[in-house]
Design brief:
By secondary structure, this protein is α+β, with helices and mostly antiparallel strands. Helices cover 28% and strands 26% of the residues. It contains 13 helices and 23 strands. Strands 1, 10, 11, 12, 13, 14, 15, 16, 17, 18 and 19 form an eleven-stranded mixed β-sheet that branches. Strands 4-5-7-6 form a four-stranded antiparallel β-sheet, with helices on one face. It has a two-stranded antiparallel sheet with strand order 2-3. Strand 8 and strand 9 (160-162) form a beta hairpin. Helix 12 runs parallel beside helix 13. It is globular, with a radius of gyration of 25 Å.
């Protein structure tokens, strides 16, 4: 009897690892339900830069190149590439056997046409089985730039954009802000695990958390100020590196040295530490740099905003100035941040008045990090801020620092904090990877039949 009991124990011990392995092995099937904070009127990869929207669009629209976790270019629709000396002429070899989601083969001519539409300043053409890109000036990081969403390869058919990704758009209902994606059985890299994705856009934090607690949503975006609250309960929370810049943008150049001094006074008067601790609940990093430290390695060199004591030190010397400032009134957190900046400025002797006019002197802006490649990210931020395009003498930290310093010396931008990006998911959701820049990698996501 004892021997038989021992055999049962051994059998059970051997079965347990097998059962555990089966539980963690990816399963095919199921529908992933997603809630995204940002609203959009179109499902065009260039329509939005929010991490949720960007991540979903990458499932349908692919680029020639993708960036890995370290921001290094890796092959995607292009299997390889070469650049000629001078960094102005690039040759891309396309991956064979790729088709658009409507069955049309992807060829150099269709890729060139897509890239010309997104980049009118480039000369892009097909040469045999290659795609050639010529630029008017050296672009040493062009491969990384091709990973930007606006450079997704697509074709237009009957008014709709057709991509090459692992999912196809089954339905896009703009009035209801609802998207349905269907698994692409003909995807060149193999069919995804899940059958479909149902995504709702324009959801606020409270609605998202409620839907998840009711079991109606599997994956949601979390605002920086709600990360702590989201970590309560059984939710799995993944947090990125600081990946969104909150800054003040002056809409015109400074007209005098005195105005430069006043802009600097405003910059050091902002109590960014209080914004981080109180408003964003430690979901941000105060910074005086455009790029976060994890990406550049030198952000700590640029002095950021101060504290209440710093505001007193920034008190101007009988120089009256009054500026108008606008912000996104639909963003309740932006309103709180704006109110605090107004008080900080007042302590420094600067009068700020909120204005709804597009011609306000200052704009409070939030920009998601455009790329995991530092040079590309800095170039895209300069483009969004309508600042002169940065130039890089070499691909080095020193050249990057010099380019960012030049942009900050325009005194047009006052960086305040870098905000973290986060997602919450149910325990039965597996395979999601959150990149440092906040992008969700959903390619290998799968659902277990029951919660572990």
């Amino acid at each position: 009897m004892k021997r038989f009991s021992s055999l049962l124990i051994v059998a059970a011990s051997l079965a347990a690892p097998a059962a555990a392995t089966a539980a963690t092995r990816p399963h095919y099937g199921g529908t992933l339900h997603v809630a995204v904070q940002e609203a959009s009127q179109s499902f065009d990869p260039a329509a939005s830069d929010g991490p949720g929207f960007r991540s979903l669009s990458q499932l349908v629209f692919e680029t020639l190149v993708k960036l890995d976790e370290r921001g290094h270019p890796q092959p995607l629709l292009a299997s390889s590439w070469q650049v000629e000396p001078g960094n102005q002429r690039w040759r891309f070899q396309l991956r064979s056997g790729v088709i658009f989601n409507d069955g049309i083969p992807v060829d150099p001519a269709s890729v060139a046409a897509s890239l010309r539409t997104a980049n009118p300043g480039w000369k892009v053409f097909a040469l045999g089985d290659l795609v050639m890109i010529e630029t008017s000036s050296p672009v040493p990081n062009l491969a990384a730039e091709l990973a930007l969403p606006r450079n997704s390869i697509s074709r237009r058919s009957e008014g709709k954009l057709i991509g090459t990704g692992p999912f196809t758009v089954a339905q896009w209902d703009a009035p209801k802000q609802h998207l349905t994606l269907q698994a692409n059985d003909q995807y060149w890299a193999g069919r995804p695990f899940i059958d479909s994705i149902e995504a709702d856009f324009g959801k606020n934090d409270r609605d998202e958390l409620m839907l998840m607690d009711l079991g109606k949503t599997d994956l949601i975006e979390i605002a920086p100020e709600d990360i702590r609250r989201a970590q309560a309960g059984t939710r799995v929370v993944k947090i990125s590196q600081p990946a969104e810049l909150l800054a003040l943008l002056f809409t015109r150049d400074a007209q005098s040295d005195d105005e430069v001094r006043l802009r600097n006074a405003l910059a050091i008067s902002i109590d960014s530490s209080a914004l981080n601790n109180v408003v964003f609940q430690s979901g941000s990093d105060p910074s005086g740099a455009l790029l976060p430290n994890w990406l550049s390695g030198y952000a700590f060199v640029f002095p950021g905003g101060g504290t209440g004591v710093a505001a007193l030190r920034a008190k101007t010397q009988q120089h009256f100035v009054s500026w108008t400032m606008n912000y996104n009134t639909a963003d309740s957190v932006a309103r709180i941040v704006a109110d605090r900046i107004l008080l900080n400025a007042k302590d420094a002797g600067i009068v700020l008045q909120v204005s709804n006019s597009e011609n306000a002197d200052i704009r409070l802006v939030r920009l998601v990090l455009p790329s995991g490649d530092a040079e590309t990210a800095l170039s895209e931020l300069a483009r969004d801020f309508q600042l002169p395009a940065p130039t890089f003498s070499t691909s080095s930290v020193g050249a990057l620092y010099s380019a960012e310093s030049t942009l900050l010396q325009t005194h047009r931008v006052v960086p305040i904090v870098h905000l973290r990006s986060a997602v919450a998911l149910r325990p039965n959701v597996h395979g999601l990877k959150l990149l440092p820049d906040g992008t969700w990698q959903l390619d290998n996501i799968w659902l277990s039949s029951e919660n572990p």
